[in-house]
Fold:
Amino acid sequence: MEERKTKKNIWYRLLYGYLRLLEKTVRIEWQQPECFCGHNVTGFWHEDSFAVNLVLKAVTRRDAAVSVLVTPDEQGECGRYLLERCGGEAVKVGYGFCNAGTLKEILESLNDKRRSVAFAMDGPLGPRHIPKKLTYFLSEQSRTELVGITVSYSRKISLSGQWDHCHIPLPFSKITVRFDNYGVAACQCPPRIRLYQDEREYSIIRKFA
Structure:
């Protein structure tokens, strides 16, 4: 048990060390950063979870607090470690929809006009690029604008064996981060969510996973 915990801690530190390397060597290009005001429901695709740590670190430098939803499992624990090292706050939620108590706490946290809530729109298990109902529900119930983040990479590794095709940027590459403001979303009439950087590649999502 202790040996497994030690190996896990070493792995977490290695991942954070790689993030620090990326922070020093990667060039980030920001598109439409004005769409993020520091008080948003913020969604990204699960495939970009690793790079979003760099986005979060840059955002929190501007004195914006961000709570990121993670699952209470080993993957979520790794995410929590990286998020907190990058200046964010991790909030543990179950698979699927949040329980009533956690959901209430998340909505109450959005009363703070200098706090945002961020999460992977397609959840911890997919399907890929299909937003969960929570994406729209949090925006609608808190009357907070939904901002989507899409990321593109000049050079990256894609883990095709994973359901999300997890993207890992390479050192000395360029990451392009685009923000899109969809306004206050409604569950009954959800906005069309950008999948990729290319403006021609949109998807109108009207079903929930």
In short: The helical segments are 2-25, 49-61, 74-85, 100-109, 133-142.
